Amino acid sequence: MTKEKLSIVKIGGNIIDNPVALEQFLTDFYHLEGRRLLVHGGGVMASKMATQLGLETKMAQGRRITDAETLKLVTMVYAGWINKYIVASLQKIGCNAIGLSGADGNTIPSHQRSPIPVDYGYVGDPNTDKMNTEFLSKLIDMGATPVFCAITHDGNGQLLNTNADTVAYSLSSSLSKHYNTSLYYCFEKEGVLRDLNDPDSIIPSMTQAESEIYKQMGVIADGMLPKIDNSFRAMEKGVNEVIILHAKNLISKKGTILLNYRDGESKP
Amino acid sequence: MTKEKLSIVKIGGNIIDNPVALEQFLTDFYHLEGRRLLVHGGGVMASKMATQLGLETKMAQGRRITDAETLKLVTMVYAGWINKYIVASLQKIGCNAIGLSGADGNTIPSHQRSPIPVDYGYVGDPNTDKMNTEFLSKLIDMGATPVFCAITHDGNGQLLNTNADTVAYSLSSSLSKHYNTSLYYCFEKEGVLRDLNDPDSIIPSMTQAESEIYKQMGVIADGMLPKIDNSFRAMEKGVNEVIILHAKNLISKKGTILLNYRDGESKP
Predict the structure, then answer these.
(1) What number does CATH give the domain A4-258?
(2) ipTM (interface predicted TM)
């Protein structure tokens, strides 16, 4: 039986700061062929709210530490404001969205990251082999469009702050059992750039071997590193295609396409 | 065909401030016979957070006015922190909870309250005849336990702050098409009291005619007024039973039972 197409789209949370861009993006998203699922971030809005609350942002090795107060804050901002704002905006254009965290329907069971060598606090990584894809695929087959924030849980009552790119990777990998999946990482640039200062230097496609060379060259660095690593891992786990692109190019799919074959192999 | 039993339980949001009481309550809730649905408030926690953020609470005729900043705040607190904390706590005890606002799955379409005579801002009242009970009953029949916060939407992208008692009333009324429904209003007292200072003065049962007399006597006043009015309206719309009680008595069902027959009629 041919699997139905499912597009998993990851977007930053700051898009809700621009209602015009948001409505255009959500309209494009709604017009993707087949079933859809959205994953959103929200770090920029959480930092703003932390400042407003007078919460100190604690960092370790360049990453935010999620203490109890920060966990409460990110759960409020991601699962509350951003998630429900996007859901209401999708409902407005006729898309039957349903907002979820990984605790809802036990869709994304996770484990708290080991405090050794660095204790990041209430930060979790999904147990990708234990995702409740049965529940999620029933929801999707009912015609609902899941909208995920990057909050998960450990099954023992503890909510966990989770990387949104990783949530998108975990969902797309595990849902590949049920669907023919495509993963889109939307961000503020047009794709992976050879030169960060030159928007015309997009790398149109990349194999895993090529990505290793780009890493050594420093072309793939910082936040792009986990995106690229997650992308190739996703394809190993059955995801059909991964594209890294600007949110405005979701329909044209212009960006950096990651290629699911090794150098020397013929293109499938 | 006999309809399946569905218990709709309304609880205040402040219960999550007491982890021991919360776990006991959720365990009792999980052991109710048949299907279940939880509705939670959160006004006390929203007020605390408003103070922390330096937001001024604006009131009109004793009720909170929901301006844009307050809407953002209550969406964060109700749909974010309280909702996900309860969902994770239910998952811990094996109950497959799914947290929802009225925007999710378009479950509770609402309309903004008229600004005349008093402009309460972004406050909504559910369109009880347009609730998406098809979607909700499919979720429930999948074995999921919906956990509702009192945020709804107008279908045009606007989130709306909604009275949690009214959400419970609207859900129980509209779900009576599909289920044999019971509505439980849990609060901090053991039931409707003849004398607020005497916990032993519980009124064990009440008809609608009796409730009118209690209103004239001032026994039913303030926050109890809409609870009682909603309760009798719910029974007119097909809800089987309504009980007003303390959260700790959910299993024993000891509290004030509202009676679904008029004085002079024989008890059904």
Answers:
(1) 3.40.1160.10
(2) 0.95
Confidence band for B260, pLDDT divided at 50, 70 and 90? confident
Rounded mean pLDDT of A99-128? 96
Domain spans of chain B, in order of start: 4-188+216-252
DSSP-assigned beta bridge partners for residue A48 = none
Whole-number pLDDT of residue A15: 81
How far does CA A244 lie from the centroid of its chain? 11
Please give the Cα distance from A111 to A225 (Å, whole number): 22
Over residues A74-103, the mean pLDDT reads 97
Give the gap in angstroms from C-alpha A90 to the nearest C-alpha of chain B: 8
- Helix axes of A19-30 and A83-92: crossing angle, nearest 10 degrees: 60
CB contact under 8 A, B88 and A53: no
Whole-number average pLDDT of chain A: 92
A89, B135: Cβ pair inside 8 Å?
Answer: no
pLDDT of residue A214: 95
How close A65 comes to chain B (CA, Å)? 18
d(CA A182, CA A65): 31
Residue pointed to by tokens 């150098």? A263
Q: Residue A226, preceding bond cis, omega within 30 degrees?
A: no
Q: Give kind and range of the element (H or E) at residue B60.
A: strand B59-60
A89 to B144: CB separation less than 8 angstroms, yes or no:
no
pLDDT at B226: 86
Q: What is the pLDDT of residue A261?
A: 65
What CATH number was assigned to the domain covering residues B4-188+216-252? 3.40.1160.10
